[in-house]
Structures are given as C-alpha cells and as structure tokens.
Design brief:
Blueprint: H1 5-13, E1 28-34, E2 44-50, H2 62-76, E3 79-85, H3 93-109, E4 118-124, H4 131-134, H5 136-157, E5 177-179
Parallel strand pairs: 3-4, 4-5
Antiparallel strand pairs: 1-2
Helix pairs in contact: 2-3, 3-5
Length: about 190
C-alpha cells in the first residue's frame, strides 16, 4: 500500500495513472503503450496498474481479494514488476507469499506451455547511490526467502517439481533487483 506503484509505472512508461498521497489506486487499470514500429512483433505493450495488496480496510476479505488480484495480474503479464518501498524486504514476506502462490497457480495452469515470464523487484526510495553494491547481502537473503516461500507454497499446492523461485518464473537476483531514489522531485513534487 502507498508504495508508489503508479508513480513508478508513470515514470517507466510515460503514462498518466492517477497518483496522490496515501492509497490512491483501487482495482486495476490498463493503458496501452505503442511500440516503436519494426522493433517488435507487437504493436502495443499493455501496462496494468493495480491497488496494493494487504489493504487494511478490506478486513478478513483481504486474503481472498489479494489472491484473486495477484492471480489475475500475474496471469496476464509477461513481466511482473514488484515495487518495494525502501530497502527492507522482510516486511513484505506476506505479499511475496501471495505472489509466489499466484505464480505457482499460473505454472500449474500452463504446465504444457513454456511461458517466458519474468519477475523484477524495484526498491524505491533508497537514498544511497551505490545501493545495489551495498545490498548484495540483502539480495542473497531475499533470494533465500523467495526460495523458502516457494518451497512452502509448492508443498501446500502439492507441486513436487517446484523447489525454488526460479522454478516458477525467470529470476536472477543479480539482474532482476533494482534500487532507485525517490521518483518525486521539486516543490510541488513532480516525476522527473
């Protein structure tokens, strides 16, 4: 919640998803981004912005809601960008569990197809310039956590072939974890 997902997508793709302080996005919104002619076999990229997971106002219904939302979005996407606020991934373990379960469900539903899905983690609001180098230990810990969560989820789903996170989606902790400073600059704040 309130981690800057819409701002990140606006900055990455030059879009205009609604942004504000606090929780803003409710539901899921899609915008099409034209692809440079001749650069791809596709004419557009679909970018989906969703509300965050674990919204306290949903009460007990948040678990079902979060699982449905994650499964829908992860099922549609070829690339999933998971936005983390700050450097500490420990506080988002419950969100990672939801994401891992959704990835496993997608893998099970599409086990006859070799889908090329990818997962990218973006740590926003990390002030240090050399954060990636300084966070190597944290990246290893995050990889261990993802693998552990994946094993537990796979056991719960009775999927013996899945033992680590990269078994369900293309992920390399050296290449797929990014750190960036605040995306808002100036007064009033605006995306760079």
């Amino acid at each position: 919640q309130s981690s800057g997902k819409s701002t990140l997508l606006n900055t990455m793709f030059g879009l205009k998803f609604a942004v504000s302080a606090g929780r803003c996005t409710r539901g899921a919104f899609l915008q099409l981004v034209p692809v440079e002619p001749g650069s791809s076999k596709f004419d557009f990229v679909a970018v989906i912005d969703t509300e965050g997971l674990r919204a306290p106002e949903l009460g007990l219904d948040k678990y079902r809601h979060d699982n449905e939302l994650a499964t829908l979005v992860l099922g549609l996407g070829d690339v999933t960008v998971i936005n983390l606020k700050g450097e500490n991934s420990a506080e988002i373990k419950d969100i990672l569990q939801i994401v891992v379960h959704a990835f496993i469900r997608m893998k099970m539903a599409n086990r006859m197809q070799d889908l090329r899905r990818r997962c990218i983690f973006v740590h926003q609001n990390v002030p240090a310039v050399g954060a990636k180098e300084k966070m190597m230990d944290q990246n290893c810990k995050m990889q261990e956590d993802l693998d552990k969560i994946t094993r537990e989820a796979a056991e719960g789903e009775k999927v013996a072939s899945v033992r680590c996170f990269s078994d369900i989606i293309s992920f390399d902790s050296d290449k797929d974890i990014f750190y960036m400073s605040d995306l808002w600059l100036g007064d009033p704040p605006m995306a760079p």
